[in-house]
Design goal:
The protein is an alpha/beta fold. Helix content is 30%, strand content 27%. It has ten helices and 16 strands. The strands form three sheets. Strands 3, 5, 6, 7, 8, 15 and 16 form a seven-stranded mixed sheet that branches. A six-stranded parallel sheet has the order 11-10-9-12-13-14, with helices on both faces. β12, α6 and β13 form a beta-alpha-beta unit. α2 packs across α3. The longest helix has 21 residues. The protein is globular and about 60 Å long.
Length: 327
């Protein structure tokens, strides 16, 4: 038997419940992974709340989570890339990572380099692949560009700050509280502004001399208008989350009237949809780690059975780094 955390209904953190289930044998194209660390992400919170319509069609009990790292215990038919004893990680659908042991498609896994621990991988992979997608593929940030990144002290934000600094961009971060300013500055942001205290949109226009080349927004409703206003003509508005709520409806002509802006909503999974795309993105991420341009984050760790507590911490907005569950 193996521990897993499942929900039988959508709701608050209290719906996360522990149970023991048999892990089973890996199917064709799968590997069985004994998890050593499991990443906790805001997408898990959205899933628990029932914010994603496709989840409503899935049978209950439902296991959340899409990021973990561990050791291969067994391989299914047709798997050639991995064997028992290999260290692997994944940050991909299908959901179901809140388990001690799991069968998972081999083609959605990456091998862990020797210098990357399972805890670091579970804290890093989803966020790191997201950053690689945002900064290198959706809009390839050039050296010298002014860029705004919201939630700069969070798991994605701190990695983005380091990456932007390494390529010579001028990075402006925003945070939700004064207590997070130091963490964002340590991540490499030239300027850190506090939403709700600073007129951050005006300050970005002042610093950049007319507007930013790109704004990366995972906040949604509360930052929508300011993000539009801080962009230079032909600027890129890259949405990848809505932690404050859904962005309001708008008229597409607003993009024209503000200077031919480009707006996109990004799921990194659409940019790593094939095995070669996934492997290439992970390769660049691990190279950035090996070069020292990125620091492996030090996660806050909790036992798997305390997943509800992890969700409460994440929703409180008081975390300044990644959360990891330990089976």
């Amino acid at each position: 038997m193996a521990l897993e955390i499942a929900i039988s209904r959508f709701g608050g953190p209290e719906v996360l419940e522990a149970r023991d289930v048999p892990p089973g044998a890996p199917g064709k194209g799968q590997i069985r992974i004994r998890h050593k660390a499991i990443g906790v992400n805001f997408t898990d919170v959205h899933g628990r709340r029932g914010d994603y319509a496709p989840l409503h069609a899935m049978p209950m009990p439902l296991v959340l989570g899409m990021e973990a790292a561990g050791v291969v215990e067994a391989v299914g038919e047709g798997v050639e890339r991995f064997r028992a004893g290999d260290r692997v990680a994944y940050a991909s659908a299908p959901i179901g990572a809140y388990r001690a042991v799991r069968n998972f498609p081999a083609e959605r896994c990456v091998a862990l380099p020797p210098g990357v621990s399972e805890r670091a991988a579970a804290a890093l992979l989803l966020k790191g692949l997201t950053v690689q997608t945002l900064l290198r593929r959706v809009f390839r940030v050039p050296s010298g560009a002014w860029v705004v990144f919201h939630s700069a002290a969070g798991g994605v934000g701190t990695l983005a700050g380091q990456w932007l600094r390494s390529i010579g961009a001028h990075a402006v971060g925003t945070v939700g509280a004064e207590s997070k300013v130091a963490a964002a500055r340590a991540a490499g942001y030239e300027e850190v502004l506090v939403r709700g205290r600073d007129d951050w949109s005006a300050r970005v226009r002042e610093l950049s001399g007319g507007g930013a080349a790109a704004v990366y927004d995972s906040v949604g409703r509360d930052t929508w208008q300011g993000s539009l206003a801080c962009l230079a003509p032909r600027g890129h508005f890259v949405c990848f989350g809505n932690s404050s709520g859904l962005a309001p409806s708008f008229q597409v002509n607003e993009l024209r009237d503000r200077g031919s802006l480009v707006l996109t909503w990004v799921r990194f999974s659409d940019y790593t949809a094939t095995a070669p795309e996934l492997q290439a993105a992970a390769k660049e991420l691990f190279e950035m780690l090996a070069s020292g341009a990125l620091r492996a984050p030090q996660p806050q760790c909790l036992p798997l059975e305390r997943a509800a507590e992890a969700h409460r911490l994440l929703e409180s907005g008081q975390t300044t780094g990644p959360l990891v569950l330990l089976p």
